[in-house]
Amino acid sequence: MSTTIDPGPPPGAQAAYPTSAPTTPRPGVAAIPPEDLAWARSTVAAISRSFQERVVGQVRLHETLLLGLLTGGHILLESVPGLAKTTAAATLARTVGGSFKRIQCTPDLLPSDIVGTQVYDVRTTQFETRLGPVHANLVLLDEINRSSAKTQSAMLEAMQERQTSIGGQVYPLPEPFLVLATQNPIEQEGTYVLPEAQLDRFMLKDVLDYPTLDEEAEVVRRIDAGIYLAEQTPAVSLADVRRLQALTRAVYLDDTVIRYAVGLAYVTRHAERYLDPALARYVEFGASPRASIAFAQAARARALLAGRDHAVPDDVQALAHRVLRHRIILGFEAVADDVPVERVIDAIITAVRTP
Question: What are phi and psi of 349, to 5 degrees?
């Protein structure tokens, strides 16, 4: 039988554990000033308006990209071709006045094609460093699973350390820096499975679906109207984005919310204790502590998007699929029985009591 985990107070706690996140921080914790919250709301609204002028529908994608922008966390997208992933990435970069680079991953792509290389100049008899396309504010790695493991590993330093190393010299990446990688789930020829170590570096993974009939018709109308041919002007500046990121880090995260997020990640590693045995047997490996960190960061960002200076358990729960779906590794039996990872995540949400 499955049991329910209770994210109760930490060991040794004396006071009663609160059942929900407070509306104001505890004494000694500085709240975000109301004027800063008002500025954040207006700035996010300006970004959203500019984004929605070119991207029709895709509400969850819109939120996911904003969460990545506010936290600096990288995003992995999975969908069939033609669902506006490239358009969304380019639109977001232009909206904030940032640089945008698109890298089309292929089996023969080399690490130097991404990070850059040194080129010998016969005129000066010196080596000249030419930085690769990863040196941009927003980098789109299109069909990342088409590149080899060696090439994929070239992104690890950039994504984790925010720098690249070329010829023994370290080159910092611009701030803000966001990697948006895409996967095509319907084409398997000439693709490579992404290593778990690299998957874990993506804060969120979102799966996109086809637009509705009305949304698709609106896309055609906007193309006919020439909207996508017009030059897009920035709605905010990179300085505004950096200020939003600083405000995101200042959002209050109560211990109750932290333990709820950690509880969700914990259950993935001990599925046999908390899930139905028929479902738990499909889980081969659970999520690492990076999942708890991703929950905390993204919950703060989601709270700020909602105009709040504190995160609540609902913020964590709304992120469960996007945080966990690429971190829970299912065994071959799950593939054979056609059990999606989302079904396991739903069971995990049920197994952890919401504060």
Answer: -60, -40
Domains of the chain: 1-32+251-355 (1.10.8.80), 54-249 (3.40.50.300)
Residue type, 66: L
Check residue 30 and give its pLDDT: 55
Please give the model's pTM, rounded to 2 decimal places.
0.87
3-class SS of residue 220: helix
Interatomic CA distance for residues 122 and 57, integer angstroms: 53
Q: Point out the least confidently predicted range of 155-159, 208-212, 298-302, 310-314.
A: 155-159
Taken as a whole, the chain contains a residue count of 355
Alpha helices in 144-195 (DSSP H): 149-161
Report residue 239: phi and psi, to 5°.
-65, -35
- How far apart, in Å, are the Cα atoms of 70 and each of 40, 94, 223, 243, 308? 11, 16, 30, 9, 14
